[in-house]
Design a protein that fits this description.
Number of strands: 7
Largest sheet: 3 strands, antiparallel
Number of helices: 8
Helix content: 40-55%
Shape: elongated
Distance between the termini: 48 Å
Structural class: mainly alpha
């Protein structure tokens, strides 16, 4: 067995090939290379074959490649620049709902639910998902972006599809063998093209930016309205701001509880009762409760516009939090 450097017929990069395998894959672009048809890398700085580990991804035998003489290992070849295809929808004019129906109808299987039995199946999955992602990118560009609901649904589902393939290598079941009386599964790996993964990642980033673009103006508007409301609250009379702080249900419960703690033991004539403690507690608690009740009435009677401002501020804070929670990273 020996490992040789061969030239990829697709991208021209040097890649490793096992002479005991029927075929392998380019580690740069993922192209399938038949051992019998492989073109030996004949550059003067080609690496020695005997010092390279067996990293072939496929199972095979009977390769016919003559070993190359020892030579210094070459510097890694840069991946060739691949111009991403422009995703343009060229079909008949459709409504947003029809584009969304297409997306739902063509939903792929998540990667974690797939079981591949060959490198060809791995390649088919990666290529089909890549083609679907580019199709969705073109379809979204053709949608009416004024229809927010369908656009958001389309983008959210499209982002999920892009996340199905986020690994450089796919694993497939190549066969089994017996070991110590039990069956052991043998797995191979299929290298996914870097350019393919990059296009899927770029599409996800575009969809995320478009999705967040629907909420960012709303967040900015809610924050601006909140700042305006806070300014108006600061300009309210001090008495109204005090009423708002003091006239809360919690304050009413606390003052009433303090009054009850001091008064109830007196009414029940409990043993070991110390009137020097309970009477002041009851008096203070009762006074605070009466003050709370009076200020609450004053707040209801005189604080109509002020109460509306505080309600508006609470609503705007809730809106900002809701919109921010919907943003995707």
């Amino acid at each position: 067995m020996a490992i040789y450097m061969v030239k990829c017929p697709a991208c021209g990069s040097a890649t490793e090939l096992n002479d005991e395998k029927d075929f392998g894959f380019c580690t740069e672009c993922g192209t399938k290379i038949l051992t019998a048809d492989a073109e030996l890398w004949t550059e003067p700085d080609a690496p020695a074959s005997d010092d390279i580990a067996d990293t072939s991804d496929s199972v095979g035998h009977d390769a016919h490649i003559v070993p190359q003489p020892d030579a210094p290992e070459p510097a890694p070849e840069p991946e060739p620049a691949v111009e991403a295809p422009v995703a343009v929808y060229a079909g008949p004019p459709l409504t947003n709902a029809e584009h969304l129906d297409y997306l739902i109808l063509h939903q792929p299987q998540p990667l974690d639910s797939m079981v591949f039995h060959s490198s060809d199946e791995c390649a088919a999955y990666a290529n089909d998902l890549h083609a679907l992602v580019l199709e969705l990118r073109g379809r979204y560009a053709a949608m009416n972006h004024a229809e927010e609901a369908t656009c958001l649904d389309f983008l959210e589902r499209g982002i999920g599809y892009c996340e199905y393939l986020d690994t450089r290598r796919l694993k497939f079941l190549a066969g089994t063998h017996e070991e110590k009386g039990r069956t052991v599964e043998d797995y191979g790996t299929y290298p996914v093209s870097k350019s393919l993964l990059k296009e899927i990642k770029d599409t996800r980033e575009q969809f995320v930016a478009a999705y967040n673009g629907f909420f960012q103006p709303k967040i900015a508007g809610a924050k601006a309205a909140l700042e305006d409301t806070k300014t108006k609250i600061k300009n309210l009379p001090g008495a109204l701001r005090f009423y708002h702080s003091f006239c809360t249900p919690l304050m009413g419960i606390l003052t009433l509880a303090l009054f009850a703690i001091g008064l109830v033991p007196i009414l029940m004539k409990l043993e070991n009762l110390d009137l020097r403690i309970n009477i002041p507690i009851a008096v203070v608690g009762g006074a605070l409760f009466i003050a709370w009740a009076v200020t609450t009435v004053m707040w209801v009677v005189k604080g109509g516009s002020a109460r509306q401002l505080y309600k508006a501020a609470d609503r705007q804070v809730s809106e900002v939090r809701t919109y921010r929670a919907k943003l995707k990273s």
